[in-house]
Amino acid sequence: MPQKNWLEWCVFAASLALIVGVAGLLAYDALRGDSSLPAVTVRPGAPEPRGELLEIPVLIENTGGQAAEEVLVEVRVRQVGGAEATAQLTIGLLPQHASAEGRVVVSLTGAVEVVEGRVVGYVLP
Amino acid sequence: MATGVLKQTGEQAAARQRGPRTLRQSLSEYGRGIAGGLIFSLPLIYTQEVWQLGASLGPLRLLLGMLVGFLLLVVYNRYTGLRRDATLAEVLIDSVEELGIGLVVAAVALWLVGELQPGLPLGAAVGAVALAGILAAIGVSVGTAQLGGDDDTGSSAEQGEDDAGVMKLLGLSICGAVLIAANVAPTGEVMQIAAVAGAPSLLVLMALALGMTAIICFYSDFSGSARPQRPKGVEIARETVTTYAVALAVAAALLWFFGRLEGVGPATAAAHIVVLSAPAALGASAGRLLLQAE
């Protein structure tokens, strides 16, 4: 039996538990085997007036099994009178089963009829 | 076989005679280890690509990385660790401790730089910690053994003679190359340099790496580079080429691990490997010096 004091045995036990935990989580992730393509959805929130502009909160979610890089999102806003404006947002990395929040700004004022969001494209890592 | 048994028995007897360290000695060692872990892993932890690779590399590759990292720790601790008269059980236990400390160091550092946020998926968080933790663990091992005084070196001289050989040389060269090159391998700059540099520049880079390897190992008078009798030209050439070959192999393995060889042709892959082989060669040379310093 190696000669160690109680502190060293405690550090060893904690280290072993940590390694087993990390390796176990990675193994579980590997066995789950979800390697489906990224499934990115865009959910725009209610527009908020900012002077002569409209600021729109956006929630982007990836429910797929792979991460997506350079995710390009487009938000389209249509006013009651028919005027339209679009804005784009890029997210560097959206991991699998993760979400990100952002905001876009369009040059519109007044009542809004429709706010739509969609994914333009992304890069597979 | 008989020699191995005698040697093992001698090691165990030495370990029994040595007795446990004091708490103060243990804390001092852990402090040095944490410092080493931070020194060698902070450049990686400050790199954006590492945060992203934790989420995108995939669990199997990360598991493989942890396994290879653990084996490197065992090799390093066996040949150059703090207690060179350690038994195999002690080497394994020390390696587990160092990997555990490395994971904690990486997790804390990633949290401090804001890359371990509550909203991050568990898989991405574990991936980033595992990735940075592997390198931090090698840093912990190097810090524990190299940053401190020579307070518990045991029968290193006798053992050094017994163990001198190709495996030891290769093991320490690989450890050194990984330690230095792993900080550069995941960055996009390797690809950018390879894309801009033409074949003539890459050949000059190879020659430069070979030259630096020879200078560090044989002509620099670094601690460990001095030998009682300077080797002759053929031996210098043989050892320099071997060390640089290790650097090339480590560069290729690291680029594969970080997914930098996927989707590129053989010529482009070779260019990436040559670019990374320069820092890997410096690390491999430093690893050799650790061996020669004993």
Characterize the structure shown.
The complex is a heterodimer of chains A (125) and B (294). Chain A folds into 2 domains: 1-33; 40-123, Immunoglobulin-like. Chain A is 22% helix and 50% strand. Chain A is built from 1 helix and 7 strands, in the order αβββββββ. Chain A has one helix spanning 6-32, and strands spanning 40-44, 48-50, 53-62, 68-79, 84-94, 98-106, 112-123. The model of chain A has no long low-confidence stretch (mean pLDDT 89). Chain B has helices at 2-18, 23-45, 48-56, 59-80, 88-112, 122-146, 156-163, 166-181, 189-196, 199-219, 233-257, 266-293. In chain B, α5 (88-112) crosses α6. Chain A binds chain B through residues 1-5, 7-8, 11-12, 14-16, 18-19, 22-23, 25-27, 29-30, 66-67, 69, 92-93, 95-99, 125, and chain B through 15-16, 18-23, 26-27, 30, 48, 51-52, 55-56, 58-60, 62-63, 66, 87, 89-90, 93, 96-101, 103-104, 119-124, 126-127, 129-130, 133, 259.
Write the layout of secondary structure elements.
The complex is a heterodimer of chains A (125) and B (294).
Chain A: H1 6-32, E1 40-44, E2 48-50, E3 53-62, E4 68-79, E5 84-94, E6 98-106, E7 112-123
Antiparallel strand pairs in A: 1-3, 2-3, 3-6, 4-5, 4-7
Chain B: H1 2-18, H2 23-45, H3 48-56, H4 59-80, H5 88-112, H6 122-146, H7 156-163, H8 166-181, H9 189-196, H10 199-219, H11 233-257, H12 266-293
Helix pairs in contact in B: 2-5, 2-6, 3-6, 4-5, 4-6, 4-8, 5-6, 8-11, 8-12, 9-12, 10-11, 10-12, 11-12
